[in-house]
């Protein structure tokens, strides 16, 4: 039996696992997908919000500001990419100044540091490509950008090396409490735990409502995005927000930590909890709304589009705590934006709740740091030459768009919670995220995965499950029954 079972290996579940792994507890994370970071956590803006737009005294505001404060040291400890580039909320007319002033006052009340309203001239000096219609902006120097994959994977890996177990392809089907113990029925068998932590994203209401009479409701809110090539990465240097509305922060324009330009998201409420398809209407909204605050965006440099789902709870606040009528069932629900920013603080809060319930001993051998995958581009020429001499795999470039070597892919496969799919490699190394979107590197990455995992290439998937890429073999031979005895028919022409 486990002390803790966490449902979901997204950024909130992984943050909780990492914080709880500080204690002498038996922890298990159940994830229905084939890897960490496969749900809401993989498809978002990658923004570290300052904390001015969350309602004063809300849990969302408190954890946003705390998570922002924690992010810089956490990035150093766990070796993921983070940059405090600042953010701007743009208004386009004098009549909108009161809304900027409201956000300023709310941010100050929330504890956000350095906030101020800047005029048109300073705004244009800071961002030359700001719209000619821009009138003023709220400047938040503590805003930042982060790699959402890097943060999620770093938290999970650190939890893993500290003893937390991760069970993938394990979908929770049912759970109930019997004799003070939680019984969790999954697609891979049954589990028992003293405490269940519900970090299931858009499905968190499903599990909460299984065990509690006090129901919650989560609406999947789809956000469409477009990602532009590195050549557009310097179009803006800060994250540019529109004034928020009832659906959230609106369409933003932002650099990414990897040097791309990101625009989006939309905010479209849907019923399908798996509805991550982009739509023509959604992408048209992204193009139209992004142009309102930033001019001359080079849309011809779009290399991909994608959509993610936000877990919007009806009360628009995080739900974190033990369910009133379900002892030992801890919700981590309604974690929409700024959930990525808040995740370190969410993990800290959940660990505090569990600590008060179980009174565990702290580990003396807790490993607080983690080293990410080596990035040869950060080395000097001399260091890179020495690395390749020592390990020639780092001189074999697999992904030419992002200049990712075989050595980096090998590291991604063999490190804790290593990659088992093309998307798993992509999230850890960026192989396949460049201009050609894996058009050239897919076959070579599949060869490496098959070799290192001792699998047939036909079993390699894009993202687990039924997403196999090889569905048949050209120039194959098939055995057919004819009027004569067994005969071989060649399905190709001109074979030697």
Report on this structure.
This protein has two domains: 2-358, FAD/NAD(P)-binding domain (3-Layer(bba) Sandwich), CATH 3.50.50; 376-459, Arc Repressor Mutant, subunit A (Orthogonal Bundle), CATH 1.10.10. 29% of the residues lie in helices and 23% in strands. The chain is built from twelve helices and 24 strands. The protein has helices at residues 11-20, 59-78, 97-110, 120-126, 148-161, 204-211, 280-293, 339-358, 381-390, 406-414, 422-429, 442-453; strands at 2-7, 27-30, 47-48, 82-83, 87-91, 116-119, 136-140, 144-146, 165-167, 172-178, 181-186, 189-198, 218-228, 239-242, 252-255, 261-264, 268-269, 302-313, 319-322, 329-333, 397-399, 404-405, 477-480, 487-490. Strands 1, 2, 9, 10, 11, 12, 19 and 20 form an eight-stranded mixed beta sheet that branches. It is globular, with a radius of gyration of 24 Å. 48% of the residues are buried.
What best-fitting shape do the alpha-carbon axes yield? globular
CATH class of the largest domain equals Alpha Beta
pLDDT < 50 runs, ≥5 residues = 482-496
CATH homology superfamily of the largest domain: FAD/NAD(P)-binding domain
The residue fraction in helices comes out at 25-40%
Defining traits:
496 residues, alpha+beta, FAD/NAD(P)-binding domain, Arc Repressor Mutant, subunit A, 2 domains, eight-stranded mixed β-sheet, five-stranded antiparallel β-sheet, 24 strands, globular, disordered C terminus
Brief synopsis:
By secondary structure, the protein is an alpha+beta fold. It has helices at 11-20, 59-78, 97-110, 120-126, 148-161, 204-211, 280-293, 339-358, 381-390, 406-414, 422-429, 442-453, and strands spanning 2-7, 27-30, 47-48, 82-83, 87-91, 116-119, 136-140, 144-146, 165-167, 172-178, 181-186, 189-198, 218-228, 239-242, 252-255, 261-264, 268-269, 302-313, 319-322, 329-333, 397-399, 404-405, 477-480, 487-490.
